[in-house]
Structures are given as structure tokens and as C-alpha cells.
Amino acid sequence: MQHNIFTSMRSLKLIDGCKGTQVYAINPTGPPPPAPGGGGGGVGDKLLHHLQDHLRVNSVRSKSNGTCQAPNGHTTVNVVTKSLLPFGLPEIDQIEPQIEPCLKFVDFVETLADLYRRIESCPQFEKSGLYIEQYAVFRGLSDPKLLRRSLRSARQHAVDVHAKVVLAAWLRFERREDELIGTSSMDCHGRNLECPKATLVSGYDPESINDPCICTRNPREDIDDDTMMEGEECSTSEEEGDMSFCIGDQEVRCVRYNIASLSRPFKAMLYGDFTESRREKINFTQNGISVEGMRAAEIFSKTKRLGSFDIRLVLELLSLANKFCCDEMKAACDAHLASLVCNMEDAMLLIEYGLEERAYLLVAACLQVFLRELPSLMHNPKVAKLFCTSEGKERLDLVGHASFLLYYFLSQIALEEELKSNTTVMLLERLLECATEAWEKQLAYHQLGIVFLERKEYKDAQNWFEAAVEVGHVYSQVGVARAKYNRGHKYTAYKLMNSLISDYTPVGWMYQERSLYCIGKERVADLNTATELDPTLSYPYKYRAVALVGENKIGAAISEINKIIGFKVSPDCLELRAWISIALEDYEGALRDVQALLTLDPNYMMFHRKMQGDHLVELLSPLIQQWSRADCWMQLYDRWSSVDDIGSLAVVHHMLTHDPGKSLLRFRQSLLLLRLNCQKAAMRSLRLARNCSTSEHERLVYEGWILYDTGHREEALAKAEESISIQRSFEAFFLKAYALADSNVGGESSTDVVQLLEEALRCPSDGLRKGQALNNLGAVYADCNKLDLATDCYMNALNIKHTRAHQGLARVYLLKNQRKAAYEEMTKLIEKAWNNASAYEKRSEYCDGDMAKSDLNRVIQLDPMRTYPYKYRAAVLMDDHKESEAIAELTRAIAFRPDFQLLHLRGAFHESMGDHVSTIRDCEAALCLEPSHADTHDTYNKVREHIEE
What we know:
Blueprint: H1 2-10, H2 41-57, H3 75-84, H4 108-121, H5 127-138, H6 144-156, H7 161-174, H8 220-232, E1 243-247, E2 250-254, H9 256-260, H10 264-271, E3 281-283, H11 291-303, H12 311-323, H13 327-340, H14 344-357, H15 360-372, H16 381-388, H17 390-398, H18 404-417, H19 422-434, H20 438-454, H21 458-470, H22 477-486, H23 490-503, H24 508-515, H25 520-533, H26 538-550, H27 554-565, H28 571-583, H29 587-600, H30 606-609, E4 611-612, H31 613-620, H32 629-641, H33 645-656, H34 663-675, H35 679-692, H36 696-709, H37 713-726, H38 730-743, H39 747-762, H40 767-783, H41 787-799, H42 805-815, H43 819-832, H44 837-844, H45 849-862, H46 868-879, H47 883-894, H48 900-912, H49 916-929, H50 934-948
Parallel strand pairs: 1-3
Antiparallel strand pairs: 1-2
Helix pairs in contact: 1-2, 1-3, 4-5, 4-49, 5-6, 6-7, 7-15, 11-12, 12-13, 13-15, 14-15, 16-17, 18-19, 19-20, 20-21, 21-22, 22-23, 23-24, 24-25, 25-26, 26-27, 27-28, 28-29, 29-31, 29-33, 32-33, 33-34, 34-35, 35-36, 36-37, 36-38, 37-38, 38-39, 39-40, 40-41, 40-42, 41-42, 42-43, 43-44, 44-45, ...
């Protein structure tokens, strides 16, 4: 009944009377189904009048919660609300936390310290493998920069071609360049790091990865070789030859010594005890080589070059080289064929030849093309068979291209694409077959357990998790408990988690897991303890919010879920808040959250994967005020200036529904996502911005930002300069200034950055970006102690509602010793900003004593991920000679936020207390996270020298 009424309501073109440019429009869905008993029209008419009144009255966006109030009570609203919740309210059993598909450790600091020691002390040729282990360890931190650094280091120290090929493709995949329209999988960015040609050069040369790549060099040597070969590519004359190979009824005249020099088997044949050594003519018909092929072999025996032989002849020579162990000729054929592989067609054609003839470089070149076409290529049956099956893995192994590294890369892509698929299972099985180190086996067993748990094959899942535990991965006991619980052994699962808490130093996830097997107050107590130990875990907040919904405390439920969304934005938490907002009849808030989560994950399924997110947007849209294009820009300015990043995301999503090709909006979207620390989604938005670009200079800017955000600053700078050479634009100058400021430190670079930002401000742009440029320019002036100029920049930024400029202005006032004015500026920012944890943190620096403590306590409540409050409180305790309390303060934060600065400070505290063992451990852990941190190096070296003395 309710669904039919709502369908009727949606089909009535409710906004026909509200003509004008609308961002949201309701499309008719056809004739409504007849209401049971034919009596549905009255309620539909009432709802129609209510919604029309709502649209007329609310011509300006209300600052309230956006609920629709029916003129005659709440009956109509309840009908709409229930229609929007066809699957009921959220249930606790449906929000079970996912087991993390990565290595997780009960003593993460010791793990980092041990890893750093091993990397520093291992032989150079083994470093690449250890950096891959570091990558696996860092996966649990969800920091893309750390992951990229580990992959870059692994590529830097790679020795063999296979590792270089896989790692270069992996680095490229991290940018997902497969999504960039018009790019080739074999494109590179001018450095050896990812260059497809450089990967095919064997040998250890860690200093070369940032050198200009082979693609940029003038191939003069190859041209000279070809020119020289033109005169040499003739068969041996009758006078020169002293023997012949007979193939069919034709002869190929050769020099016996030259052919014998190709290999030991040929030498034994032609100079040994075989009858062929005494014959001038040798029958070679049955050896599978043509006359042309044998002539090519004769030329190679004389010149040691392949010249311009066509591919068929080179393949014949490769086969001949294998039969007669001609190592030099095989290597030449292998390298020549590998250099010809430029695209998918070449790779698909030549991979079989390479595998059959065990041509290492040729297979590497083909693999490189395949890996650079991922993830789409995994749907190719031929490639899937090669990678996924045991037979394919054996064939790769025979030619030296089956490795844990390869299958680690492939299995991670499969886990992201489709967790429960057969392809994922097979790749993980191959991963396990390649695993030799303990951590490799832990990872493979654990991930197989996760896949089978998702497939609801609980017995197999339990076996895989138990295998992971047996080889030392304690966290996999979580999987064992889940599998046992699903097999009906609830108390056994509880005991397992209980013993984990007893045997190890408790951390938040342990209590979270045990809570799953408790009920009532015990469950609530465990989840409260989990939040106390690790406030970044989202499940406890979600559980408490859903429990409050069950008690009909909807407002309290929203407040609870707001706590986690305030510092950790994720689709599942936004979904839950939207769900609860619908129950609260806050349709505007619900729509905002659904639009924001669709920005993070465009294919998100709502209500426990039962409804497309886009469909819920369609249902919610008619229930709120409609905006024109101008309204949208005003709303975006409003939310941007109030630092309401989620609200801004929603407005941008709103605008993109009717203008999906607007690259500027995609770019704005990426900036907001970066603010929210959603880097994966931000990169996707940047790629879309680049693909939507209508001009070359604009496309170059977005490519530059993609490169900058993935650590390629010099390449980003080059893109900016190329864009400026085509057309001067705000974004090109801004990108160049940003990349230059981040690449160089010093007075000269500051002058260049100022000039670039001033050039940017002379170019057309909107207030949102102008405000950012003015803010950045003010920061540079403040760094150079040009305080009056800095003040002017910040004031101009504030005049166009760039609210964050209050923070820069406060800094200027502090530099002028106007502490009170600085405090007042930060207070203004706190009052204006929705997301104001950083404002409280900064304001604490401008006050003392209890006021500072109060602000920092507020920071921790709003964003426990910020490290400054813990460092400040620990420093205060140390000043009061409360060393143990200071250490405990840092230890509590490190348990859920292993930040290198926290580790460095705790190491320094340990040093001051004479605890050199703990100092060494903390410094090593910090250096594992940030190898270039000079202060930590100083502390570390000083303590080591003291111990040695």
C-alpha cells in the first residue's frame, strides 16, 4: 500500500509549476499501479499538496534539519518515511565489522623496529624483498604514501627483470592510469622508475631509477647498427664457406668455425668424434629450421647481430638456439623479440612462443603488457588461465616468472575487484604455492580464510585461518572465532577471544571482536573499552547508534554516529547516518549523506546491499527544496566557507548529476576528498576531471596533480610548465607554485613561489580557488617575515569567504606578539567551521594552562587521530617529572595511531630516563615509518654509540 502510494506520488511531475533551470528533476515512471481497493488517490492528493506547499514555502534553504512537516499532522510524512525504508531500520546483526584482509600485529611497534633493523643490515640484493614485506605491513595503516614509498624502494633495489616488470606495473596501477582516456599501457613519465623499456634491463642499479628513461634517449646506436648491418647481411660466399647444411634439396654454405662457436653442441658436432665433423655436407632437414632460418643463423655466427631479420626468422633462430644450446644467439633473439612487444596484440601472439622456448625476456615483455592492462585484462580467458591455474603457474615457473611478488600483486587486485570470485581463490592458492617466508604464508592463509568466510564456506575458512595462526599470525584467531561462531560454536568463539585478551597486551580490536560473542551489558562494556583503547574503530559507534535507534532515541543515534564521521569518513557510516536521518524525517540530511557516500563509492548498495544508492537519491530528491544552477554555486560557497566538506561534496554531486562532464567540478570534488583523507576516491575524481577536460592545457594540469599526489613532483612541475606554454591559467600557475614549494626550501624558491601565485591571481578563476591562492601566498609571506603583506593576503581571502584564512591571520598576529588577537582569530574560525578540530588545536597554542587543556581535550573528542594533543600533554607531564605518566600518554595514542612523531618523542623520553633498549626500539620503529627524520636519526645514533662504549 505504502509503496504504491509513493510510486503514485513520484509519477505526478510535482515541480511542473516550478519552472526554471533545476538541478534535480523528477522523471515520470509511467502510470501508477492501481491502489488496492481503488482508494489510494486521497492520500496521494494530500501528499501532492503538501510537497507543493513545501517547495513554495521553502524558497531559501532552511537552516533546520530539513524535515517535511505535513499540514495536518505527521500521517503523510510517516507514509513517505516508511516508503523510503522498504527494508526497515538498521539491525545490529547486519553491521558486523569486516576482518581486515592484511597482516595485523599484536605488537606493531616491535614489528616495525624489527623490519627496520633487517632492512638496514641485509645485503643490497635482498632489500627489494624486504621492502615488499614492509609494504604488506604498511597495508594495515591505510596510508597510500607509505605504500607507494615501499613499492618505490622495492623497485629501486630490484635486481632481476621479473621484479622490475611487476613493481613498475604495480606503481602504475596505484595511479590507475588504465582509467585515463587516450593513454597507452606502455606510456611512461620519463623516469626509469616505471619505464617499460628500463624494466627489461637486468642488473642492480639503485641510483638509476630517477634518471631519464630509455624512451627519452636518441636511439643513434641502434640506427648505426642497422646501417652497418645493411652491408653485412649477405650469406657466406662459396669461396668463404668450408661446409654446408642441407635442408631439403637446398644448401646453406657456412664457415665451420663460426657455426661451432655458437655452442658446445655445435662444436662437438663439427669438431668432435661425430661423423658430421668429417663431412662437408650435413643433412639438417629434420631440425625444424628453414633455409632462410639457417642463412640467418650463418649471418649471426659471423656478425653476432640479428640486424633487420623479420620476426619469423628470429623465432626460428630462437628455436634453433634452444635445441643446440646457443646461449649467445638465444639471448640476442630473446632481447630482440622482447623489444618488439609494444601492445596487447603483440603480447598475446608472442607469449606462447616465449613460454615454449623459455625466453625469459620475451615472457617478461609480454607479462609487462598484461600487468599494465589490469584489472580489465583479468576477464580475458587466456590471460586468466595463464595466471590462475596451476598449469599456467608451472609454465611461468619454468621460464622464471612465477613469484610471490607477481601473485601478491594479482591477488590484491582480485580482492579489490571481487572478493568472493573463483579467480580470487585461484590466485590466492597460487600465492600460497609461491610463499616461502613466514609472513608470506601468514598473508596467503589469512586472505584465503577471509575469502571463504565471505563465501560462507565456514569449515574451509576456519582451516585457512588456523593455518595462518600456526605460522604466527595471531590476528587470524579473529577469523577462527568468526568461522566457529557461524558453525554454531558461540562459546568457543568467546573463549578464543577471551584468551587473546589474556595472553597479549589488549588493544581495541580484541575487545571489539569479543563483543560479537557477548550480549547485553557485557557487549556494551566491551565496545566502550574498544573505543577507549582505539577511538578510530567505527563498529562500536555504529553499534551504539543502531542500539539507540532500537530504543527510539533517534537524535542520540545521530549524535553517536556523528562522532566517527567527524574524523573518519566512510561509506558505511554515511549510509547509517542517512538511514537514521530518514527515520528522523530529515530528508535533506539523508540526501546529503547519500550523495557524499556515492562520491566515495559510486556503485554503493544501500540497506545491506539491497538498493542502489542512486535510486535512493531519486526517491529523496522530490522531498527537499530544488535548486537552480546559481543556487548550487551559492550553496557550494556557503558550505566551502563554513568548512562543511561533506555538505560541499553533496552539492558538487548534486551539480554533477546534470553536468557530469564538468571537469572543474570533478577537480573541486577531488580537493574535498583529499581534505577528508579519502585519497583513493580523490584520485578517481582527478582522473575523471582529466578525462572530461575540453582543452589540452587543462588536461595537462590535472595530469600534473595526479603525478604530484602520487609523489612525482618533478614530473608534475613539467606538466604545469607545458600547460603554461600553451595557455596561462590560474590552475597551471597554482600547480607549479604548489609543486615548487613542496620540492624546494629556501629564499630563492620562496621568491619563485610568490611570483607564481601572483601570476595565478591575475588569471581568471572563482573565489573558492582565489581564496586558496591568497591563503598560500600569505603563508609564504609569513615564512619570509613579510607580515604586512601576509596580513593583506589573509584579509583579502577572508573578504571572499575563505574562512581558513583566519588561521593564517592568527599566525601573523602571533609573530607580531599580538597573542590576544591571534586567539580571537581562531575563535572566529571555530565559530564558523563545521569541522573545527584543527581550529581548536591551533587556538590551544595561543593560550595557556586550563584553557589550552580544554581546547586540546576538545580536539581529542572531535578527532582522536590528531597527534599534537597527546604530544603536548606528554610534554607537560615530563616537565612535571611524571615520566611514567608521560610515557603512558604516548603509548595510549601509539596503540591506535603509530605515528613517527609520537614514536620519536617517546624514544626521546625513554632516552632521558636511561632506558636505552626502549629508545632503540622506538627510534627504529619511527625510522621505518619515516627514514629521513633527522632528529630521530640523531637520537638513535647517540644511544647506539653510548651502548657500544
